[in-house]
Structures are given as C-alpha cells and as structure tokens.
Amino acid sequence: MPEQPLVSVRDIHKSFGTVAVLKGLSFDVAKGEVVCIIGPSGSGKSTILRCINRLIPIDRGSIRVASFEVEKLKSDRDIIALRKEVSIVFQQYNLYPHKTALANIMMAPIHVLKEDPKEVEARAVSLLAKVRLQDKAASYPGELSGGQQQRVAIARALAMRPEIILFDEVTAALDPETVKEVLVTIRELADEGLTCILVTHEMGFAREVADHMYFTDGGVIVEDGPPAEFFANPKHERTKAFLSQIL
Amino acid sequence: MSAPPFLRPLPRGTDLPVLLPPAARLARRVAQERLQGNPLARLEARHGWFLLVVFLCAAGYAQAQAPAGHPGIAATVWKWTPLLAKGFVFNIAISALAMAVGTLFGVFLGLAQLSPATPVRKSAWFVTHFFRNAPWLVLLFYCMFLLPFKITVFGVTVPLPDWVKATFGLSLPVMANMSEIVRGAVQSIPTGQWESATAFAFTRRQTLWMIILPQCVKRMLPPWMNLYSILTVGTVLVSVVGVSEVMTLAGDALGSENRADLLMPFYLYILVWFFLYCYPIARWTVYLERRYAVNF
After folding, report:
1. CB-based burial of residue B180 (10 Å sphere; 0-12 exposed, 13-18 middle, 19+ buried)?
2. Cβ contact, residue pair B210, A107, below 8 Å
3. Does B214 sit within 8 Å of A112, measured CB to CB?
4. Domains of chain B, first to last
C-alpha cells in the first residue's frame, strides 16, 4: 500500500475580486519528492504556494499538509503550527535588513519555535556553512549579493527544520551567473531527500532535479508527468507551445 | 483591484536628463513630506546670518534712538541675559518633556491606526487628525482650564502646576504628529517583510515589534527631529497661559525697564537663541536623512 502523500491538494479555487486565479487544481506531493511547477506568468503558480502555507486562504477545495487540513484552520495558533512545518523561499529574498545573516537565520527558531539560542546558533552556523557562506555570518543583507542573500534565505528556511520547503521563483531576480550557486544549493537539498515544491523558470534545472513536473496555465494544470517524459514528449498543444518558446 | 493610495508609486521625475537631479531632489522631498505628513521646515545657515544682521541693525537703531543718560542697549541686554537664560532652559525642559510624552503616546496611537480591528483603527485615525489639526493654542487653553490643579491618587495628592499642564497640552499635537510619522513609516516598509515574517510563523505582534518597527526607526528619526524643532519654537506659546518661560520673563524684564526702544532688540535676541538651538538639530536631521536615504 502506497504511503499517504505529504501534501495533497484537491480541486482548489481562488479568486482575487473578479479575477479567478486558480480554477480547480489537484496534485499530490509524496514525502521526499521534488515537484516543479512551471507555466506562464500570471498562471497562479505563486498563488498555489501561498495557499499551501495559508498566506492566502482558498475559496473552495481542500489542502492537506501532513496532518493539517489547511482550509479548515481557524485560529491563529493552528495556522502558525502549520507554518512551522512549511518554510518558503521568496523571489525577492525578503531577508530582514536590520539583522545580520546569522541573526536572520536564528530569529524564527528562537522566537517562534522557542528553541535554545545556543543550539540554534550552532545550527545556524552549520547551515551557513552548508550554503557556503560561513564567512558572511556577520554581514547584513545589504552587504551581500543577490545570490548570497538568496542562499541565506534558503538557510533561514532550513533552520525551521520544516517538513517541506516552497521555492517561489527563487532565481528569477538573479543574474545568470549567480543563478547557478543557488541552484547547486537547492539540488543538494533535493538529493538529501527534502520535500520541495519549486515554482521555476529554469527548465534545465527542473528537468534534472524534479521527480514530477506540472505545467499550469489559466489556473488549471494543463499537463503533468515525470520530467523525462514531460520534456521529451509533451502531449498537450499548450505545453508544446510553452516549451518551444523557452527551450 | 487598484492599490490603496499609500502603495501607489511616487512621482518619479522626468526622462529629460537635464531635469533629473532637481526632479530626483523633488521626488525625495515629496517622499519625505508624505512620510512625515508635513511640509519640511528647514533651517539654513543664511537664515541665522540674516537674523543676526537684523538683530544688530535693530540694536544699533535702538541705541541711536535711546535717550541720553540711559545705559546702552548691549549693556541692558547683557544684564538680563542670566534671567532670560533661566527661562530658555525652562523652554528646553518643557520641549523635551512634551516630546517624550508625545512620542510615547504617539507610537501607540500610530500603531492603533494600523490595527486590523476597524473600530480601533477608525478612532485612532479620528484622535490623530483631531489633535493634528487643532490649533496648539486652543489645546493649551483647554488643558490649562480643564485639568485640575492637583490630583489625588491612592490618597497621595499630586499638585499639577501650570507648567505641567502646559507641557501636557503641548504633548497632544506632538502625539498626533508622531502617530502619523509611525503610520507612514510602517506603511513604507515593503509588504515582502510582512509576508516573510508571516510565512515564518511570527505573530502579528512579533512581526511588528521585532521585524517592522526596528526597520522604521531610521526612517522616523529625521521627521521626528523636525517635529522636535517645531515644538521647541512652539514652547513660547505657554507664555500666553502664564508659565514663566523665556517670553514671559522677557516681558517682565521689558516691563521693569519701561523703555520702548528695547522691544525690538530684546525679542530678536531671543529669536537668535532659538536659532542657535534649532540650527544644529536641523543640520543633524539633514545629515541623518542623507545617511538613511530611503529609496522609494
């Protein structure tokens, strides 16, 4: 009997005012799986991620993350409990500019998870080493390059020891050379068996790391499949058109 | 969905290269004034020189007019300087106290203006704008006449002298202006910071006090200091309600001298003092603004 998926999204709908952004998406993510979502701008990819950690409440459908029934969470405390399990890395990094790189990583574990600051610091130092920024611990975000900031943001997400990390177009604001250093970091995490959902425009990277690909357009999943099949042999016309433009 | 007014982009200037530096300067100033909610009052050194020249001219003219046998203008002004200085120190003390009280309440009022609870937000908005737009003098008179001259708390009677009431009266507009400074600064923090804090499971209160407000301090400092300069100059208003600060004492001194020719030099002399006190603050504000320039 197959294991229950870690994330299970069922027929979710979301509108902003009169604009319907998500029109009935469903997908599952198993534990340890790396899922990539691609699609044109405005197709609701980032909204999907924000629904999973409930930054955005959905209108209809259901989302389950581990034991959390996301759409049924009412109290702030329950929502916060969910967010402790789901970390996110943003396109614009969104590091706290008034804190050093190390403090950025330590803040949430100390104040949200209420862990011992000494332990958290040790973990933060080793996470900085993991993203190869051990010598930047005392630097402020403003003193770091985009790629370095994004790697600090990844370390910050990891410090929460989440069940799953959401990556929201994390390389879109970077120049081509620094994209690589960030992607290398993400690939290491994927290889370690961390569950990841990536929204990305990096097709080559998606093909390498993804266990499963999804192509969204107009608020629905147009096509999905294992990357080899998905890229080599797209079935849907819309997918073919999109891939031919990008590849 | 159109963006709420405070999120709409600011005027960016122009594409004409010649106009870029002034346009950028204008845009910065507009941004600063939006943050502060007031036009900027900015002292420059030339204002001080101008003041000094006017003072010396007035003193010279008065000297020429002075009836024979009277001591000179400079000697008379110098004679009263210790008394005036005492009054001036009192002005500074009132301004510092009113600023402290006003800032403390203003921070909370400003945060209340950002509350997700509509009644709290609306009433904070009303209080802010009521005290921001009410004339300072009217507020002063209200405080003088409505506050008791003593209050009894748990059997202990605390006297409320006039100067305390006046200080409280001055702290009201400071509170209201501070409220707007806080609201403006919090709203100028990029929404990504809120989003990121929320996503990392911080509560709203934690987000505000640990992530948003520390970033606001730098942005609030220049308008806050500007507000202090305005308040300092405004402290002379308390002379109207009989507190013996520099203006009251100057009036007393003039009364005892009973010489009309002293009028101009005396008040200009006090004006020079205010300039000397406020000018360094203004320069420091400019320096901090440059240093913490916010790129909107």
Report:
1. buried
2. yes
3. no
4. 46-291 (1.10.3720.10)
